Amino acid sequence: MVADLSANPAFPPEPLPATVPGTPAAEAAGARLAPQLFALAAATDAVGGFPTQEFDLLRAAGLLTATLPADLGGAGLDTPAATGPLLELLRHIGRGNLAVGRIYEGHLNALLLIQQFGSAAQVARAAADARAGHLFGVWNTENPAQGVQLEALPDGRYRLHGAKTFASGAGHVSRPLITGALPEGQGWQLFVLDAEAQPPVLDRSFWRPLGMRASASFRADLAELELAADALIGPANEYYRQPWFSGGAIRFAAVQLGGAEAVFDETRRFLRSLGRLDDPYQRQRLGEMAILLESGRHWLRGAAQQAAAQAPAEATVAYANMTRTAIETICLDMLRLAERCVGARGLLQPEPFERLHRDLTHYLRQPAPDAALADVGRFVLEHAEPANQLW
Description:
Elements: H1 25-40, H2 52-60, H3 83-96, H4 98-117, H5 120-131, E1 136-139, E2 149-152, E3 158-161, E4 163-167, E5 175-181, E6 188-192, E7 201-203, E8 218-221, E9 226-227, E10 232-233, H6 244-247, H7 249-273, H8 280-309, H9 313-346, H10 352-363, H11 369-382
Parallel strand pairs: 1-5
Antiparallel strand pairs: 2-3, 3-9, 4-8, 5-6, 6-10, 7-8
Domain Acyl-CoA dehydrogenase/oxidase C-terminal: 248-360
Organism: Hymenobacter aranciens
GO molecular function, one term: oxidoreductase activity
């Protein structure tokens, strides 16, 4: 679990200036950290591993509070206008280490959801925890037959039953934001668990992945843990409100694109090491890869503009679904081209490309990709505006 690092001289806090919403300070810090994250990644690339040192670096850089407003000690990346710098920050972290990016995106997502749906007291408490170095996360996935349920107790508290799967950062995330079913069909409820005071039982055997080994996405059994009423965040079913539920896909897409950038950089490094700079076919593939990356950056810029414009929820969700679909395709094409560039030699350990390929392939498997694309089709069919006026 995460201890309070605020007084630890090894990791002195470095608050990021945030006098203007959308300040690039956090983005610049992410860019500076990306090479360090990349250099450390191989050491934790094992089932059950966790990038502890990497998150110490994020804490020291003040990045655990990036999506808090300035008056709560953050960098102000909590507003729609700050979506661009936020996506760039996530892209840099993904370029450094996709496992770190996966957990970090969940941490920022949890803080944003608490700010969106929580009370002022709950937001203040979460901000204090983030400043103290605690990791947040969002645990939503579950086996329907063993899903999380809240049992109401006579004293106003709740007892938990069931488990979550793919609980990223389990054992290290000390403030997971979790979904569960309220009694008597009252709905789907968000709540924060103090996982230090009440640690869930972890099934580490659940996590035997192709990639993202160091994200520690175990099965977390919450049975018999209890919550106070003030641990519940917002009314029932708020988690699925749009555009926040589907619109957040642009954040994991930003992390994925960062991973594709790392693939690109490693492919070039590998070809240089072999002296393959004059091969016309390698040049052609690298040209295609450069086009793909720039296309991905344009998608992130478009998504940021859409969020900043605060368009109607339906349009925001459709654009987010386009962005995640386009970046998934870009990443898959990047992997295909890179494989042909590096050949069998480049796929051998300890070449970084072997790990990058596994991690990106696994991370691209996000929920409901077909439904996301079908939603885009539904939106454009139901709107009669000319194509240049849809967004």
